Every structure is written in structure tokens, then in C-alpha cells.
Amino acid sequence: MSEQPTARAEGAAVPAEDAAGTKPLLQIAELRIDYRAQGRSWSPAVRGVSLHVDPGETVALVGESGSGKTTLVQGSLGLLPASARVSGGSISYSGVDVTGWRDARMARVRGNYVGFIPQDPNTSLNPVKKIGQQVIEAVAFNERTAASSQEHIDAALESLRTAGLANAERVFHQYPHELSGGMKQRALIAIALAGKPKIIVADEPTSALDVTVQRVILDHLETLRTELGIGILLITHDLGVALDRADRIAVMQRGEIVEHGPVRELIANPSSDYTRRLLAAAPSRHQGRLAPSPGLQPRTPGEGIVVRAEQLRKQYTLRSAGGRSLVNALDGVDLVVRAGTTHAIVGESGAGKSTLASIIAGFATADSGTAWVGERETTSLSHRELREVRRDLQFVFQNPYTSLDPRFTVAKLIAEPLRAFRVATGRAELMTRVRELLRAVALDDSYLQRTTAQLSGGQRQRIAIARALALNPRVIVLDEAVSALDVSVQAQILQLLVDLQTELGLSYVFVTHDLGVVRMIADDVTVMRDGGIVEHGTVQDVFLSPQSDYTRALLGAIPGTRFATV
Amino acid sequence: MLHYAALKIGRALFVIWAAFTITFLLLFVLPAEPVDLLFDPAELNTIPEDVRAQVAANYGFDKPLLLQYLDRLGHAAVGDFGTSVQSGRPVTQALLEVLPSTLILSVGALLLAVVIGFAIALLATATRRPWLRNLLESLPSAAVSVPVFMFGIVLLQVFSFGLGWFPSFGDGGWQSLVLPLVTLAIPVSGPIAQLLVRSFTGEMGAGYVVTSFAKGATRGQVIVGDVFRNASLPALTIAGITFGNLIAGSVITETVFARPGVGRLTQGAINTLDIPVVQGIVVFVAASFALINLIVDLIYPLLDPRLRASLAARTS
Question: What chain B residue is nearest to A136 in terms of C-alpha separation?
Fold first, then answer.
């Protein structure tokens, strides 16, 4: 069943090398891809897309979820799922038309001619094989003449070094679970480079990584492009990343390219409405805090402090190959949230920001220290008393796809806290309140009987917010509440939050990794790292004159800042 | 690592002990007069009282229950389950005599079932023809739903009486092993195949598979080189658990094909209410079940580096 990799090298039908100088590395022309819908009908996912990548060029393909960008990538690599088909157009590499090539023939193009960097480094490496073995495979599958195993090892180590892993020998003998996310992504870059490809297709290569790691990886890709003269097709949902990194940008919406051009042209003179909306929604391009929508009646929030934390400490025991070690998830953290304001807690993964949020909400306990919600001390309460605190403090979670019960209707979801606390008695009263809440998050009554499967991500998060509002809390803790959403939806939800705050006098504790979002919604900000507080203050102060190097590094790594003032 | 092994061995010993205790309760405590079970029911009323008392004393039925239990447990721990009521021979000896033939049958059947399971899963994953895939995926449930005896009889009809390729009974040479092996393996292969098909399908959608395709691997290389090992891990567990079914299945198979073995011994012991033998068999089956699962547990860390790492961390 399996061909020997060395046997394939002879007479491999790789696109001719001499053609590379004249033809684009990748040329997609009028490509159409359909998915099998119900019965015998097909629904289009990519509708006549044309795109090309020249040597030494980075082209960014920007689109939100469902725009068809991933399908386009799968199509160009010949990795479409069985339920999809190419129904028109062509894909050619250096002038060689590969449309409709059989799987075995396409396998010679992949790795050899086009390298691929996947989205999530944490799932994209085989967990039971050592990194070295996985890179060696990439070398062996794509070599032009048969080589000895020592040559394979040397080539693999070389590739790991090129990908920016300084201690390549050590990584070579490690398993994926022993590496950090950034190192895994570098290993994947090494795999993509191992076949000495002419072009690299990177599908959201950094969206699973922290912003500072993202910056290093993207910098490295840029260096590789210059040094090796390869072309890069960068697929991203983040317009900021595209603006920073690409020579040309193609904007994709509902399976079509709606805008295509050099970066400066696109910023200065966007031709489509969609691009204009994306540009407006990009947090990095937004100056200052979002203003409430006009025509709202602001409620003056009560004075004083609604949430306070003092010297919170929490330790976890971490078991690793080196033995037991204690990790300070929180190392004496203070927090003050003023009434009617938004306090952002920002940091990278492992900073302790979610731990802090869940201790304040009473979901987790602290080893020492005290937290108050209003006048009540939450760190020493019984379960029954904590329940009462939750009337005042509600939580909105990161992933609207998993935090709502899929079997509940919208009406039932929103009514749940009302029933649990016996706030509304009687069906009529209950439904009146549910409708009221639904209107508060800008959805109409037609949503009442839907289940979450019939809602988009943004609509789901609106329902989650409506549910949090049900008990008229004074504080809402939002844990990465907009991170899973597309930028244009994210902008709408942020606007909704600002409007609700104005109308109801709410206070938010806003946990996020995205400094761009902080600027749009927060009044105060606390920057966390490794369980400690690096810096805190008003958004103005922290953004304009950051005191710590770490804050400066975070601010510098926000994608899209390069053109933020254009 | 040592801690892990000790934990798993302790669990295995607990299972064996529990099996012994439960059979003791069922066979020696619950019957009003356990000694009555030692005699032929037809002659029970003609047995003189002093003979009964003598026999009861022999078997220790006159002592307090706790003492009886500890006495039997102590003997069982060194492999002594008393003597068979029917034949008067030690239970352990009777078991050991038929053990090799059952062992060959059940281990062979387990291996065959695993091979069948993998064959179905590999073919279903490798094929790009939807109809073939659907057909292969429907095989496991068909295999489970056909009763063992039924399957054995059909095989006998076709290959033994019809074609005359294999003998219909006995245990002479490898030819006599083929039909019982197949009969026993097919139903057991069902759940294994079902699980494997599902886990192969799941792993084919994993991120690292895309990476491998992008490296330039062919479908075959991806299945053999990447998916196989990751997808096989859960099958190991089910194979261990299935071993219990195999022992149960061997009772029927050995009867249908008239082969000597633990299955036949069990059938005989139950028919004649040979209580020491029944208890010996139950404890033996529990022990082999625990042993197989212990082996599975100990193999796991060797196959999965992640588990190995977390075990190494726990003990250091």
C-alpha cells in the first residue's frame, strides 16, 4: 500500500524548476469548490477565486470564519475532505496545472514544492513520535536522490536550526508534549521547510500562540522569506497581522475575493464595504475607548468600589519530568474595580488572569488573601452565601459554543437564573423579563424558541450576556468573552457591552490576552505575568507611558500597529 | 513507574480476591445446607445422618463461617481449591489438565479477533470508495449479532460436513483448532473492529494527519506511519476486557466442537453441582482476566510517551 519514499524521487512529476523564474509560484484561477449538501445537491464554498503568489512575496488571505479561506487552502494542497469537490477553475504551481491530480501524484507536490504550516501547533504533531523522527520523514519523503540515514538526520537538524530552534539536538530527541507552543510551531516550520519548498502556505500559523510568541514566529517567517527567496501565502482572520506582514492582501468574504491589492493601497483606499468594516473593526486601528451609542439614557453608577482583592495567593503543584514543582498561579495579587467602570486584566497564557477571575467569582478558592464583592467577603463564604453573591456578580465565559446547553432553547437559557433564584414567579412574568433581556442584547422575540445550534457565535455570546444580566448584577466578569469571535462580531459585542454599561451602570472585570481590545473597552488595566502584577493603572497611562519592559513588549507585539496611524 | 505497577498489581489481586469471596458467599454460605449439595439429589434421603455429619466435617461445614472462609482462602492462595466431589481428584489438577487446550483456543481467538478488527479498520480507512467503507463498517455489528453456537454450526456444516476440509470435533492437530478458533474469534472481533474503525476515523481527522499529508506522505504512509499507533491504543483496553467474553464463549465453542477444555469442565461441574470445581474455575477465570488486563495496563506506558512522562513525574 505504501510506496517507498526513495522510489518516488525518480521521475517525480514535480513542477519544472526552470519555469519557476517566469511563472507565479502558485496561481489559482477562477477556482470553485463545492461541498455536498443534502441529497445530490452541492453548496459552493469557494466561488471563482483567483490569486497568485510570486517568489519572495508574502500574500495575505484575510477572511472571517466561514469565508472559505481554509477550503481554498485545502483545495490548493489537494487535501479537500471527501465531501468536497473542485467544480471549476485551476490550481497551478510554477505553471504546472495540478487541478484534479490523483492523491499519489499530489503527494509529490506537497512538501516538495509547497510547504504547509498548520493552525494549531498543539494538535499538529504526532504525539507518540519524537520531533526528530517527524522531521526526518519530511526530509525522506521529499529527497531527490536516496540518502543515508545519517544524511537524513543531518538534514533534519539543519531544518530545525533554520526554523529557529537553537538547541536543535535536544529538540530532536523530545516528544511534542515536552515542548512549548512556540517551539512546536517552530518544529512544524522545520517540517514545512524540510522538503525545500518554493512556497509556504501558512494557515493561521500564530492564532493559537501568545502575542509575543506570535511576533517572534512571524518575524522568523519574514526572515526565511528573504533568505530563502520563497513565497508565502499567509491565511489569517487578523487584519492586523496581514497589514503588518504582507506585501499584498486579498480579502475573502462568502467564498469570493472582495478586495485585492497592495497593503498601502488597501488601507488608503479600500474599495469594498466589507474591507472598510474590517478595517474599522480591527482593535489595533481603533483610537481610544468606544463611545456609547447615541440616544442612550446613562444611569449614574454608585460611587465607590465594587470588587476588591488583596494579596490573593494560589499555588498549583505541577508534575513534570523534572519532578514536582510549585507554580505560583497567583503571587500576592491586588485588584480594585471602581463602580461603573471596566477593569481589564491582561496577560499571556499562564499569567494567572483566569485564576484571579475565578477566585473573585468564587469558582476557585485562594490559598490566602481576601476578595470582596461589594461589602461581602467572597473568600470565606459557604456555598449558600456564595450563591447570594452571584446575584451581584455574574460570569460570561470564553467559548459561546460550549458554555450554553445545546438542548435548551434561548428562552430557557435566559430564564434559567431567574428560575434558580426564584426571581420571577409565574410564567407571564418570567417571559416578560426574558423578552426584556433579549431586547437588551439587541435580539428580537423570534429567537426565543431557537436552540443554540441555530445561532451564530456572536448571537450565542449575546445570549450568554443576556443570561448574565438576568439577575440585575452589579458586576460581570468576562473571561476572554470576545476572543473566539470574528473581529466584526467582536466589535459589535464590545459596543453592546459599552452600551449596557452606560444604561445599567454595570462594572466589568474583563479578562483578555488582547491589548487591542483593552483599549476599546477598559478604563483601568492590570497587566499580569507569571502570577504577579507587572503594571496597573488607567488605560491612558499604561498605553501611553508603560513603565515595565514587559508591557512595552506586549504593546509592541499587537499586530497591525505598524500601520495604525496611517 | 513502580508506583503505577504496584497500583495495577494491587488492583488485579483485589479482583481475584473479590471473585473468591463472592463465589464463597454464593456457593457455601447462601445454600441452607451446603453439605446436601455434595450428594446426588436422588439419594439424598437415603444418606445416613452420621455419614452426612462426617462429610460435613471433612469439608469443614461444621466450623464457624469466618473460619471456613479463612481456611479456604488460605488454601486457595497456594492454589488448593479442595477436591472435586465427582471425581475425587484435586480441583487444581483437573483444571491444569484441560488448561493448555483452552489457553491455546482463547489466546489464539483473541489474536485472530484483533487481526480481523485491524483488517476491517485499516481497509475501511484506506478505501476511498464510500460503498466499500459502508460495507466494512457494517461487518462488526453483524459479527456481534450472530450467536456463537449458530456460527459454529454453520461453519461445521460448510467446512467440515460439506467440504470436509477440517475435522468436526476433537483436538488432534492444528486442523481441529481452525473451526473453533474462527467460531470464537468472529463475535469477539465485532466490538474490537467497531472501536478501531471509530478511532481510525477520528485519528484520520487529527491535525498531525494534515501535517503528514503536507509533508508529502501518501495515504498509505499516513495510515501506517501516523494513524496506526495512535488509533490502536484504545483497542488495547477493549481487547483486555473482551477476554472475559472469550472464556464465556469457549464454554459454548468447546461444547459444539466436543473439545476438552475449561469450558467443558465448567459445563460438567455446573451440571453435577461440583461446587469446589465451580469455585476453582471462577477464581481461575477472574485471575486470567485480571492478568490480561494487568498486562494491557503495563504495556500502555510503553506505547504512549505522554503517559510515560506523567508516570515518571509522579514517582520522582
Answer: B215
Whether residue A1 has pLDDT greater than 60? no
Domain A305-409+457-462+473-563 sits in which CATH superfamily? P-loop containing nucleotide triphosphate hydrolases (3.40.50.300)
* Domain interval for residue B143: 98-271
Single-letter residue type at B310:
S
What residues of chain A lie within 8 A of the CB of B221, using their CB?
2-3, 5, 141
- Specify the CATH number for the domain of residue B112: 1.10.3720.10
- CB of A390 within 8 A of CB of A356? no
Q: Is the pLDDT of residue A4 over 60?
A: no
- In this predicted structure, the answer to whether residue A197 has a pLDDT above a threshold of 50 is yes
CA dist., res. A134 & res. A44, Å (int): 35
- Provide the ipTM: 0.74
| CATH 3.40.50.300 in chain A, residue ranges | 305-409+457-462+473-563
List of chain A residues whose C-beta atoms are within 8 Å of the C-beta of residue B218: 2-3, 103-104, 107
Distances (CA, A) of B286 to B22, B98, B191, B214, B254: 11, 17, 21, 48, 19
pLDDT of A497-531, one tens digit each?
999 898 888 999 999 988 888 888 899 999 998 88
> Are B216 and A111 in contact (CB < 8 Å)?
yes
For residue B201, list chain A residues with Cβ-Cβ distance below 8 A.
Answer: none
**Per-residue pLDDT at A200:** 92
Range 114-173 of A in CB contact (< 8 A) with B: 114-116, 118-120, 123-129, 134, 137-138, 141-142
Q: What is the pLDDT of residues A534-563, one digit of tens each?
A: 999 999 899 889 999 999 888 888 877 665
- Cβ contact A249:A236 at 8 Å: no
